[in-house]
């Protein structure tokens, strides 16, 4: 694409703008549009350039951007300017996030302001409220089957309640993340209803087929996401008399991004939420955005182009807003969702570090950091203006998505090792007391994932059931060790509500017909506020977990080396139980931290000489930043207690 073609098209588009847009004072909008237009035009034409109505669609796109810019509240426009100046603001170690269901956490949105002090007590300053858009009751996939993208589900409250919450959050210096479910809609969404009634325009919003011929061809290469409950990727809709693509549940219709109208509609929705004061938008299931026959229909090049286009457009209207990519895919694929280039081909600033999460759990099961050490090294370097969401648990299941080659290199057989992990976390392995549940078992491939609360998977639940003090100690150590890893690794740590007080599995979903076949609900609990109150009583499990995590968070915030500037070095030590890496700050403070985690149930030695050879531990003593303890280095070794960690200042 020649720039001049873009310039000329931009001029044509600006001339054709509707008078109500043209005669507004939109200085910042035009500066940004001018700067991004070449990229927007190139991407839009690569996706939709062969359509006869391309120019009309382009105009429609620019009008959408301008209209939302005009609606953008003044205080957000001011914030945009400030964030543009300080564009790496989100890489700071100051940010600590938590994901929560608003009904589970506080009943509804109105109830949230009175619970925010709990988050602040812990040190959390970024809240991801799980999806709150209007969904059909019983067919909601936990909020991911949206019926109305611009309205809040009455069970959670109203747009006004959200506005009030945004105001509370701002006053407390907290950020808000909300979801935009970009890949699919509920079958009760207005577009789906119209498609069902035979409206061709809206049938084109989805993938609809008269017979099985094409669906069968797609099926040859498409995996199944929910093989037990929603096998196959197409659903017959009797009323429409057509098959429709439904990659997730049968009531979630996949959107057809080959149609530019779909792209523009979804962009408009993204900007709608940006204008409500959302700081970060979590774009759901982005790996699935482009479907191509003969492929897995995941991670396609066009899916990346769509995200790049969304980003370029959002930067014109709401540049202060960031995107999280929810792409739970192989490490070499995840990295691509940051974009290929921070200027020309940027995508989402933030992505879930599902690989790290799964590797941490693997280390818990094996008590070794062998695969963790290998798997982390296989994650390619990311862009500088990009960061991870590092998490231990979230609302979804745990999949064993690390690479087979790494499993082999760590000395295991991939299939057997994945089976071992499922057995371990479901408590079906000798010596395991984990209480997870197998999720998404696939009879054809033998794959399975794991559901369960952190406390259940870390064996705290079984230890409490048996009233076994030693086992309780050990499981609390595991919980803290895992948190120490996500808080120090580099990226935004994402805690999960309930975990800081040791919330157990919640079986109540079994008596709800709409949930009982999806055991992810076992770890989507109602917050027990009486239990939460015990975080202030020394000696209780709640206190032991909460106060230790709180301490870690406050220490993290003080250490500039913990900001994410691609400033991590993985260190190889001669002990298979230890995971060791350094974090450094190349700025003024020149601070350096060596993080050591021992995944074994026995104490392990860290060999000082080898650390010194790598340039660390040059003095006689070293201090652990978390406990403040000082260690002598004269013995040649430091003992890392069982299931423990240190953050050494060095
Ligand atoms: C994402 C969500 C998951 C949901 C799926 C389909 O992966 O995290 O909970 O089931 O998308 O929307």
Automatic annotation (TrEMBL):
Residues in Glycosyl hydrolase family 13 catalytic domain copies: 95-556
InterPro entries recorded: Amylosucrase, GH, GH13_cat_dom, Glyco_hydro_b, O16G_dom_2
Keywords (A to Z) from UniProt: Glycosyltransferase, Transferase
One Gene Ontology biological process: carbohydrate metabolic process
Protein name, UniProt field: Amylosucrase
EC number: 2.4.1.4
MF-aspect GO terms: amylosucrase activity
Presence of keyword Glycosyltransferase: yes
Gene: ams_2
């Amino acid at each position: 694409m020649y720039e001049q073609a873009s310039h000329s098209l931009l001029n044509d588009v600006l001339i054709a703008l509707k008078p109500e847009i043209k005669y507004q004072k939109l200085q910042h909008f035009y500066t940004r549009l001018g700067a991004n237009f070449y990229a927007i035009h190139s991407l839009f034409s690569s996706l939709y350039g062969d359509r006869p109505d391309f120019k009309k669609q382009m105009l429609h796109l620019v009008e959408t951007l301008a209209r939302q810019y005009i609606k953008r509240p003044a205080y957000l426009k001011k914030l945009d300017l400030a964030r543009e100046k300080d564009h790496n603001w989100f890489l700071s170690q100051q940010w600590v996030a938590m994901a929560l269901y608003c009904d589970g956490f506080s009943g509804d949105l109105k109830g949230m302001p009175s619970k925010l002090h709990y988050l602040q007590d812990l040190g959390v300053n970024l809240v991801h409220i799980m999806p709150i858009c209007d969904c059909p009751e019983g067919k909601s996939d936990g909020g991911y089957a949206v019926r109305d993208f611009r309205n809040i589900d009455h069970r959670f409250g109203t747009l006004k309640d959200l506005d009030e919450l945004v105001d509370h959050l701002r006053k407390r210096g907290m950020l808000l993340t909300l979801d935009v479910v970009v890949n699919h809609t509920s079958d009760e969404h207005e577009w789906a209803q119209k498609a069902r009634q035979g409206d061709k325009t809206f049938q084109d919003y989805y993938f609809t087929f008269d017979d099985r011929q094409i669906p069968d061809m797609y099926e040859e290469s498409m995996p199944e996401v929910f093989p037990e409950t929603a096998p196959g990727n197409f659903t017959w809709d009797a009323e429409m008399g057509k098959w429709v693509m439904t990659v997730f549940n049968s009531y979630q219709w996949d959107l057809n991004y080959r149609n530019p109208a779909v792209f523009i509609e979804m962009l408009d929705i993204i900007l709608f939420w940006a204008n409500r004061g959302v700081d970060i938008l979590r774009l759901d299931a982005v790996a699935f955005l482009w479907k191509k026959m003969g492929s897995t229909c995941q991670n396609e090049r066009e899916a990346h182009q769509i995200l790049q286009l969304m980003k370029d457009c959002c930067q014109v209207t709401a540049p202060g807003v960031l995107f999280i990519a929810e792409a739970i895919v192989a490490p070499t694929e995840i990295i691509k969702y940051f974009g290929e280039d921070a200027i020309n081909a940027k995508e989402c600033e933030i992505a879930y570090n599902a690989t790290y999460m799964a590797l941490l759990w693997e280390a818990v099961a094996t008590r070794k950091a062998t695969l963790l050490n290998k798997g982390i090294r296989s994650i390619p370097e990311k862009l500088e203006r990009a960061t991870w969401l590092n998490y231990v648990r979230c609302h979804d299941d745990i999949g064993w998505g690390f690479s087979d080659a790494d499993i082999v290199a760590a000395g295991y057989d991939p299939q057997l090792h994945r089976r071992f992990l499922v057995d371990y976390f479901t408590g079906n392995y000798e010596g395991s007391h984990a209480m997870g549940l197998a999720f998404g078992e696939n009879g054809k491939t033998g794959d399975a994932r794991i559901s369960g609360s952190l406390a259940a998977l870390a064996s705290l639940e079984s230890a409490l059931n048996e009233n076994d003090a030693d086992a309780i100690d050990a499981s609390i150590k595991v919980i803290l060790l895992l948190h120490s890893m996500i808080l120090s690794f580099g990226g935004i740590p994402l805690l999960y509500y309930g975990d800081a007080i040791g919330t157990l599995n919640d079986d109540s979903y079994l008596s709800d017909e709409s949930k009982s076949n999806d055991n992810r609900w076992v770890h989507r609990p109602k917050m027990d506020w009486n239990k939460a109150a015990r975080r202030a009583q020394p000696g209780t499990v709640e206190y032991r977990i909460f106060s230790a995590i709180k301490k870690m968070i406050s220490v993290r915030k003080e250490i500039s080396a913990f900001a994410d500037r691609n400033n991590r070095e993985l260190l190889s030590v001669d002990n298979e139980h230890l995971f060791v890496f350094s974090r450094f700050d190349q700025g003024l403070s020149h601070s350096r931290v060596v993080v050591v985690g021992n995944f074994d149930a026995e104490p392990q030695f860290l060999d000082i000489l080898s650390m010194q050879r790598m340039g660390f531990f040059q003095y006689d003593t070293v201090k652990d930043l978390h406990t403040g303890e000082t260690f002598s280095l004269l013995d040649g070794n430091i003992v890392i207690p069982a299931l423990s960690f240190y953050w050494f200042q060095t």
